[in-house]
Amino acid sequence: MNAGSILLSSLIALGSPIAFAASEGGDTWSAVAAAQRQGAALSIRIASSGSIAGLLASDQVAQATSSMGTAISPAESDRIVELNPTMRSMNVAYGERVIFRMNGKSFAWRFDVMPSRTHVDLREIAPADFPMRELRVFVAPQPEYRGG
Fold first, then answer.
1. Domain residue extents for the chain
2. 98-117 tens-digit pLDDT
3. Fold assignment, 69-145
């Protein structure tokens, strides 16, 4: 069950009359069940700036991005890498912040990847309009996960 499903289930549960049943003694379930049998309709409204599908999709993108690192502002970078068409791979340290540049386009990325991840493919993190897409960035493991 993903975070979106849990959120949706929670909202539905809170909208249920059972969630607000009195607990001062007595048989509150019978009163709720009787009202539902008499045709009482349950209406749930969810306030959102987008569709549920859109919210779930953005949650999945956020999870994927965070496992590969995070986008940052260029001002936060540690180094600048000028890419050329012959490059196929490069190395970075865990947590390193890099600006990638090519043909007048650039973006900045922090490689705070999951411990099990050894590399990130540039095509997975680069903006759609970034010219170079085929580059594998090898990420050195975080020191506390190296073992020894």
1. 3-66, 69-145
2. 999 999 999 999 999 988 88
3. Immunoglobulin-like (2.60.40)
